[in-house]
Amino acid sequence: MSTETATGTDPEIQVSPTAAEQALDLLEGEGLDTGIAGLRLFVQQGGCAGLSYGMRFDDEPEEDDTVYEHHGLRVFVDPASMRYIEGSVLDYESGLQGAGFHVENPNVVSECGCGESFRT
């Protein structure tokens, strides 16, 4: 299997140290090998603004994925999703309203009121 690894010329997907730590804890809790497995970040149709983010753990990247590594976390992005999220930052926020992962996407032109979906 060949995976494309991000280079310095790509608009890279960044991961905050807090997000990486949280994701790695979850990966290990699932019994996955953090040296091979990773977090898949993708875009899907849905939500009131048209597109929404999805995340899941995968055992390994797909053949055409771009693979990013930040703070020990591997992030897999498929080519179709990349055009919507290139240059984004994955962060983890916690507060009174709850805790969770958040994508800071510079390509977004509008978001729905709840922040769950977006348009580019």
UniProtKB/TrEMBL annotation:
A Pfam family reported for this protein in Swiss-Prot or TrEMBL: Fe-S_biosyn
Single annotated GO MF: 4 iron, 4 sulfur cluster binding
Domain Core: 12-116
InterPro entries linked to this entry: ATAP (IPR016092), ATAP_core_dom (IPR000361), FeS_cluster_insertion_CS (IPR017870), HesB-like_dom_sf (IPR035903)
Biological process annotations from GO: iron-sulfur cluster assembly
NCBIfam families according to UniProt: iron-sulfur cluster assembly accessory protein
Protein name: Iron-sulfur cluster insertion protein ErpA
Gene: erpA
